[in-house]
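PROTEIN DESIGN WORKSHEET
SECTION A - STRUCTURE
LENGTH: 104
TOKENS:
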């Protein structure tokens, strides 16, 4: 028996949609990341999808930053991977941001 399946889109989003806000919170994230990168981060178009776009819509548009250890060119591929050093760097970055936001 053959099963025929018709895919149906459940979410429509333009490719390369940008969800970066230039507010104080985003600038603080950029400042925290600057020493870890080859310069200060800048808003740019992404070539993959994240939950950030949907969360912004669902929660009334709060600021959002896509931040993590993955390599954008590998995002959402079968063989996606992260180096341990990038994961450790991300843990340190997230901990620094949480301490700043909590006033610690």
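SECTION B - SEQUENCE
RESIDUE ASSIGNMENT:
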């Amino acid at each position: 028996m053959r099963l025929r399946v018709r895919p149906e889109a459940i979410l429509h989003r333009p490719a390369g949609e940008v969800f970066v806000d230039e507010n104080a919170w985003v600038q603080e994230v950029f400042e925290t990341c600057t020493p870890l990168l080859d310069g200060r981060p800048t808003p740019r178009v992404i070539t993959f999808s994240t939950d950030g776009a949907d969360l912004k819509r669902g929660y009334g548009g709060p600021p959002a930053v896509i931040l993590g250890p993955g390599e954008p060119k590998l995002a959402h591929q079968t063989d996606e991977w992260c180096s341990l050093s990038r994961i450790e760097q991300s843990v340190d970055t997230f901990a620094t941001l949480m301490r700043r936001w909590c006033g610690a």
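SECTION C - NOTES
The chain has one domain: 24-101.
The first helix runs from residue 24 to 33.
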